[in-house]
Amino acid sequence: MRLRLQGVSKSYGSLRANDKIDLDIKPGSIHAVLGENGAGKSTLMKLIFGLLQPDEGDMFLDGIPIRWQSPEQARAYGIAMVFQHFALFESLSVAENVWLGMAKHWTLAAVSTALETLAHQYGLAVDPNALVHRLSVGERQRVEIARGLLARPRVMILDEPTSVLSPQAAKALFAMLRTLASEGCSVIYISHKLHEIRELCDDCTVLRQGRVTGRVDPRRCNDEQLSALMIGGAPPPLVRAKRDSAAALFAVDALSVPAIDEASERLNAVSFELMPGEILGIAGVSGNGQGLLLDMLAGEPSDDSRLMRRVAGHIRFQGRAIETLGVRSRRRLGIIAVPAERLGRATVPELSLADNMFLSDESDAWQLDHRKLRDAAQAVIADFSVKAPGPEALASDLSGGNLQKFIMGRALRSAPKVLLVSQPTWGVDVGASAQIRQQLLALRDAGAAILVISEELDELFQIADRFHVMYAGHLSAPILREDATLELIGQWMGGSWLLAQQAPSVAGAARRVHH
User: Fold this and answer.
1) Which CATH number fits domain 250-349+414-511: 3.30.465.10, 3.40.50.300, 3.40.50.1820, 3.40.50.2000?
2) Is 260 helix (H, G, I), strand (E, B) or coil?
3) Is the sign of the CA dihedral 473, 171, 403, 235 positive or negative?
4) Less packed terminus of the chain by CB within 10 Å, N or C?
């Protein structure tokens, strides 16, 4: 076996995150580790990568006993990991970040050249000279993937690697992973996309509540069988009410924001209308202007934006221009935004869940009502099945999926008139994803206008009434969900519609859209 774990356990106080885990990873295999949020996947990967040490049990790499004392030691022996939460220095460039984790014989120039090669070979395009603090979530994940690929490891761990990729780019990534596996590299693949696991992986180990509950060949399973192993059953089907035509509640008219530099996002005369009782989806590979668009709609552009950009166009709510209003004033109108960045923007990592409830409070109270905040946080924890010790738990202590459930629960609890959300189910397991999507549909059915920015095309096809696609700061014509296909939207994500806006298929679809 390339990697073997026998009876590995790890506890955090009274919480047993991993309980006598046995795991066998064969050379040249792509092995899925599947489990709901809080099942112990992240802890197990940290043990393999040397970020944590097991309380008990044994680990072997190519038959040799191992017990890493640090990630550096694990990397030296050929273990690479691409994290769901990124470990990048904001003030450094992409190439500098990658260079810091490479062997000493690598030069900065060689790293830059290698990154450009990866961009052409695998579709992980990112500017080596771009500063990390100006990158979107998707671009940051591409940096992490590239860093892992350059190390050419014996074992590569990937945590939700396709969450920011178009279907075509995901297929290219799969081809690259199969090539790596054929060369003898063992790949540990963590994903909540069950169809990916069935398509890509040779083996699958399922965790639930810190224990192994199954070992299967995913190619011989369907989604329902994998869901049953993971959460005890298939999630219920989504239910939506029929949408009635109505006047726009929220509208954007020719919104343009020039880029600060070549590495920055821009918006080019973006226009759309958002109706009450509608979910409008915006698809696109991350980094094409979605993050900047959400910032402008929420009323919180960066300091760079205020000083260095010339913004044109209008943002209207109930016919009133609101582009001069700040984020707090927009919240008072019932416009709530949920950014993709969980730690640092959506939550303050060092604060408790209760104190983080204050971030969505629209009141002018200068003194915190701690009891009210604790009660509100406890309600979100209970309603959204957030695995946390209680309202006093720090945001940074939650797993990525559980933190996302808390953030979405907090936003939905405020019953917004307009909800602007980016990546609502990023890194969330199949059961929790279904719950969040059903809550979004329920809010839609109650009359709210909802904008969902997502790279998860399956998600948009499940919940969106209409689509746009963003590419290089441009927004496509809208298309009704029933007129769209995965192949068509995937092509649009590559910018094909910019060259063929007048094509009959596009024009015909656009004519059918309800304005």
Assistant:
1) 3.40.50.300
2) coil
3) positive
4) C
Stated pTM of the model: 0.70
Beta bridge partners of 203: 31
Residues in the chain: 515
Q: E strands within 258-373?
A: 267-274, 278-283, 312-317, 320-321, 335-338
Q: Where are the beta strands (DSSP E) in 200-311?
A: 203-208, 211-216, 250-257, 267-274, 278-283
Sequence spans of domains, the chain: 3-231, 250-349+414-511
- CA-CA-CA-CA dihedral for 219, 224, 230, 232, to nearest 10: -150
Spatial contact of 394 and 351, defined as CB atoms under 8 Å apart: yes
Let me know if the fold of 3-231 is the same as that of 250-349+414-511. Answer: yes
286: phi > 0 → left, psi -120 to 50 → alpha, else beta; which? Answer: beta
Two structure tokens written together for 418: 């307009």
Kindly list the distances between the CA atom of residue 446 and the CA atoms of 185, 243, 382, in Å, as whole numbers in the listed order: 50, 11, 22
- Give pLDDT tens digits for 105-145: 899 999 999 999 888 776 677 899 999 887 866 678 788 88
Residue-wise pLDDT for 288-310, tens only, equals: 899 899 999 998 765 554 444 67
With H, G, I as helix, E, B as strand and everything else as coil, classify residue 388.
coil
Instruction: Count CB-CB contacts under 10 A for residue 65.
Output: 9
CATH architecture of 3-231: 3-Layer(aba) Sandwich (3.40)
CA atoms within 13 A on the CB side of 56: 9
CB 277, CB 306: distance < 8 Å: no
For residues 269 and 297, the answer to whether their CB atoms sit within 8 Å is no
Phi/psi of residue 359, nearest 5 degrees? -65, -20
Could you say which DSSP state residue 408 is in? H
Q: Are 284 and 290 in contact (CB under 8 A)?
A: yes
